[in-house]
Amino acid sequence: MKKIVHIAAILLLMLYAGCGKPNPVELENPAATGDEQSVIEVISANPEQTTSPYGYDTTAFFRPEDVSLNYGSALFIARNQLFTGDSVSVTSFAELYLYDRTQPVRDQNNRIISYKTKKADFLRINNFQAREVAHMMGWRRGGVITDTLLGPKYRLFGRRGHMSPDFELGSSASMDIRIKLPGQGPVQISSSLPVDITGSVKRIRLNGADAMQINWNSIPGSGEVEVLIGARLIATGQMIPFYRIKTRDDGQYIVPPSLMRAIPPARFGPPGVTLLRKKQMVSPLLEEGLYIAAFSAYTIRPGN
């Protein structure tokens, strides 16, 4: 039986890797045991008053306090299968951040929540070249959501089925990553996506109350999966993230009634679920290390 630990704030997982080798160092997911804990991170601690400055899709892959802030740069890559009602779409996504660690960004409690960012000459993944876009970050200060420009970031995004996709990754794809910084030669790194994750959701009754059973294709011994649960704000249509659950990759998780009750049905539609299988590594080829996180994602949303 899985134990549950509630955390009423975003949990920061501190991971460190040495940079003495020229090749990327893969960061393993925690080993699973037969009696492991499922950790629940409460993203929106007060759903009745939430106006999250982070979009649902962004929160699936990033968080305000992220392990990537321990390194000089970060690259996030994802392939997401999105099911809404009876339709399906597949998107591929990547973003590169080059942190200027001499210019931290702090919240009202003086915690470092990000850094300003620097320019690159280019980012290419499998010969797709990223676009430079503005890195805007929003966070709450004194009850007011503030958007601030932190510098550039480098983005690739594409949707399967378009005539000329700007970016496309296949299932469990291998990736040739090339990055060039100003005044330096290009670096080349090889990585790959995790094994595809797929799943299903159904409402059940547990001890006389509403609960939700989530199933997915498990990979025994692979470590953790993450389950992101959110719901659509009826008034605006915005997806609000509520919980991030880390659990063993054993193919099933039951969302307890206490979490279901905390999403007020008068304000929010039925919950949606994103399943995440993640692979992490650190490359020493960029100064202070390049943190790479590659995701296979599967999102299930109720039909409109």
Account of the 3D structure:
With 304 residues, the chain is mostly beta strands. The chain has one domain (3-12, 19-301). Helix content is 4%, strand content 55%. The protein is built from two helices and 19 strands. The chain has helices spanning 56-61, 257-261; strands spanning 3-7, 25-27, 37-42, 73-84, 87-106, 112-117, 122-125, 128-129, 131-141, 144-159, 174-180, 187-192, 199-206, 209-216, 224-233, 239-248, 252-255, 268-283, 290-301. Strands 1, 2, 3, 4, 5, 6, 9, 10, 15, 16, 18 and 19 form a twelve-stranded mixed beta sheet that branches. It has a four-stranded antiparallel beta sheet with strand order 8-7-11-12, with no helix packed on it. Strand 11 (174-180) and strand 12 (187-192) form a beta hairpin. The longest helix is centred in the first third of the chain and has 6 residues, at 56-61. The relative contact order is 0.23.
Brief summary of the model shown:
The chain is mainly β and about 300 residues long.
What is the topology?
Elements: E1 3-7, E2 25-27, E3 37-42, H1 56-61, E4 73-84, E5 87-106, E6 112-117, E7 122-125, E8 128-129, E9 131-141, E10 144-159, E11 174-180, E12 187-192, E13 199-206, E14 209-216, E15 224-233, E16 239-248, E17 252-255, H2 257-261, E18 268-283, E19 290-301
Number of strands: 19
> Strand fraction band?
over 45%
Kindly report the oligomeric state of this protein.
single chain
C-alpha termini separation: 35 Å
Round the Cα radius of gyration to an integer and report it.
19 Å
| Sheet having the most strands | 12 strands, mixed
Domain unit count:
1
- The ordered string of helix (H) and strand (E) elements is EEEHEEEEEEEEEEEEEEHEE
Please state the average pLDDT score. Answer: 80
